[in-house]
Design a protein that fits this description.
The protein has about 600 residues and is α+β, with helices and mostly antiparallel strands. It has 16 helices and 31 strands. It folds into 3 domains: about 210 residues, Phosphoenolpyruvate Carboxykinase, domain 1 (3-Layer(aba) Sandwich), CATH 3.40.449.10; about 250 residues, Phosphoenolpyruvate Carboxykinase, domain 3 (Alpha-Beta Complex), CATH 3.90.228.20; about 70 residues, Phosphoenolpyruvate Carboxykinase, domain 2, CATH 2.170.8.10. The strands form 7 sheets. Strands 1, 4, 5, 6, 7, 8, 9 and 10 form an 8-stranded mixed sheet that branches. A 6-stranded mixed sheet has the order 14-12-13-25-29-26, sandwiched between helices. A 5-stranded mixed sheet has the order 2-3-18-23-17. β30 and β31 form a beta hairpin. It starts with 7 loop residues before the first helix and ends with a helix.
Length: about 600
């Protein structure tokens, strides 16, 4: 078909991809509701999608069992030398990787349609936003990109004749021979899956997977891996962080970003409903924050996405009422169970399980079945605009000024409920050593923790030692305008294994203490690991929390922290001479404070 595009570089690239992949036809996506509905109707007619009777304009997809999540071991950062990718990334030399993938791409779209998706990460006209163009042979990807990014004709207009864009080539890797019947979820075998990033060229190539972050290339691939490399070069930050606004009863606004490894309550915190009278929370983003220093010297954050791509199991009105309120219509569900009434279901949803359902593999399921009805990584894709607690400023072009950074992890002991860094360098140390337990075994023993610095281990597009240095450099530039840094642990347990803190909306009590620290209303108490609340500084009104539990939540055990040091040393050692000396100095200061 004729192209509505005037950008010479884009036209040339699309032509090159079409010659290589050999699709039956090329379609330029306009981002319209009509386009979305047409593609979804076609997928429903083919059996790839199931229209949900109970949720308007919502559909369920079931992926191939081999294609259910991000594939970290098939994800590559391709830089000229291995050291530039660093020890936390998989690396293949660019020429070798491009040679392998070019062979796979050759003819990979035969029998299919090539869709050209012009998209903007961030609202059009924002100084923080970036343009990308994804080429794909998956209509499922097109519909998800409609929700997760700003797609269509306005982006093409903004690209003009010579505006830069980030090229993102994707194929499911399943060409169709003449007369061959398609399957509901086509994809390539695991050994042929590649999610490749070329940071020096701002280029993304993905092959073989149709799922999530492997295929929606605006998300982790562009917004984190490539953007983090661009941000380092240009002096800004692309982070795996929620963005939240808290407003005090007096009307003062505090803007918070937070980075948490998986299973640590990040989405729940992004959509928190405070339990403290008079405090109001608004969500500005649940997953990614792009941050630049504004004219006033403060750090301004913007959520570059326009939707939520959330994990469904465990989401309920108890854990996250705002998320459940977002999912009433216009949603794509993937690998959830289908009830006999024509609705979706997953483990952890409110109320009793259905007496019968069809599970994510299309099999009959009852509560007596030995397998789960929904895949543990089942997802929902929903527009951010329909979240009940979305901030009216979530698309503010300049972003919002950040007051507080939060890091955290899941620890049964050792880490207290909350502590504040002594200064920026100490805060970077906290972020660079962030950890969550992978087992319920003895805490502090090497092997039970997974270090996930800044929750960016799978998403940093270059050597993480250099990434730590970039954080330190941003603090130097921000100076007195730098946000305050805190570390939280909602998951501390008693010796008998009971969670000591109720979590969910009650976490607003901890956020209030942080805000009062920023406002200078509370002093906290110094400890070897940072500044902790005095017991009387936490607002516990209306919360039944035993005194002994509170004491344990705020206890710092020097012996347990000393036992952490060898694991931190081992973690830092992998970065060799790329580890900033300032972080080594922070580790030494921790040693000295512990005595």
């Amino acid at each position: 078909m004729s192209s509505p595009c005037r950008n010479a570089a884009l036209l040339k690239w699309v032509d090159e991809c079409a010659r290589l992949c050999r699709p039956d036809r090329v379609v330029w996506c306009d981002g319209s509701r009509e386009e979305y509905d047409r593609l979804m109707a076609a997928m429903t007619a083919s059996g790839a999608a199931i229209a949900l009777k109970k949720r308007p304009r919502s559909h369920l997809f079931r992926s191939d069992p081999s294609d259910v999540a991000r594939v970290e071991d098939r994800t590559f950062i391709s830089t000229p030398s291995r050291v530039e990718a660093g020890p936390t990334n998989n690396w293949i030399a660019p020429d070798e990787l491009k040679g392998t993938m070019t062979g796979l791409y050759r003819g990979c779209m035969e029998g299919r349609t090539m869709y050209v998706i012009p998209f903007s990460m961030g609202p059009l006209g924002s100084p923080i936003s970036r343009f990308g163009v994804e080429i794909t042979d998956s209509p499922y990807v097109v519909c998800n990109m409609h929700i997760m990014t700003r797609v269509g004709s306005r982006v093409l207009e903004a690209l003009g004749t010579d505006e830069e864009f980030i090229p993102c080539l994707h194929s499911i890797g399943a060409p169709l021979k003449p007369g061959q019947k398609d399957v509901p979820w086509p994809c390539a075998p695991m050994e042929q899956k590649y999610i490749a990033h070329f940071p020096e060229e701002n280029l993304i190539w993905s092959y073989g997977s149709g799922y999530g972050g492997n295929a929606l290339l605006g998300k982790k691939c562009l917004a984190l891996r490539i953007a983090s490399a661009i941000a380092r070069r240009e002096g800004w930050m692309a982070e795996h962080m929620l963005i939240l606004r808290l407003t005090s009863p007096e009307g003062r606004r505090f803007h918070i970003t937070g980075a948490f490894p998986s299973a640590c309550g990040k989405t729940n915190l992004a959509m928190i409903e405070p339990t403290i009278p008079g405090w109001k929370a608004e969500c500005l983003g649940d997953d990614i924050a792009w941050m630049k220093i504004g004219p006033d010297g403060r750090l301004y954050a913007l959520n570059p996405e326009s939707g939520f791509f959330g994990v469904a199991p465990g989401t309920s009105y108890e854990s996250n009422p705002a998320a459940m309120g977002t999912l009433k219509e216009n949603v794509i569900f993937t690998n959830c169970a289908l009830t006999d009434e024509g609705d979706i279901w997953w483990e952890g949803m409110d109320g009793p399980p259905p007496a019968h359902a069809i599970d994510w593999k299309g099999r009959d399921w009852t509560p007596a079945s030995p397998t789960e009805a929904a895949h543990p990584n089942a997802r929902f894709t929903a527009p951010a605009a329909q979240c009940p607690v979305i901030s009216p400023d979530w698309e503010k072009p300049e972003g919002v000024p950040i007051d507080i950074f939060i890091f955290g992890g899941r620890r049964a002991s050792v880490a207290p409920l909350v502590h504040e860094a002594y200064d920026w360098d100490h805060g970077v140390f906290l972020g660079s050593t962030a950890a969550s337990e992978t087992t319920a075994a003895n805490i502090g023993a090497v092997g039970n923790l997974r270090r996930d610095p800044f929750a960016m281990k799978p998403f940093c597009g270059y050597n993480m030692g250099d990434y730590f240095a970039h954080w330190l450099a941003m603090g130097d530039r921000l100076g007195k305008n730098a946000p305050r840094i805190f570390y939280v642990n909602w998951f501390r347990k008693s010796p008998s294994g009971k969670f000591l803190w109720p979590g969910y909306g009650e976490n607003s009590r901890v956020l209030k203490w942080m805000c009062e620290r920023v406002a200078g209303r509370v002093t906290g108490r110094p400890t070897p690991i940072g500044i902790l609340p005095r017991q009387e500084e936490l607002d516990l009104q209306g919360l039944s929390l035993p005194h002994d539990d509170l004491a344990e939540l705020l206890r710092v055990d020097p012996a347990a922290w000393k036992a952490e040091i060898p694991d931190i040393q081992k973690h830092f050692a992998q970065f060799g001479d790329r580890l900033p000396g300032r972080l080594a100095a922070q580790l030494q200061r921790l040693r000295e404070r512990l005595g």
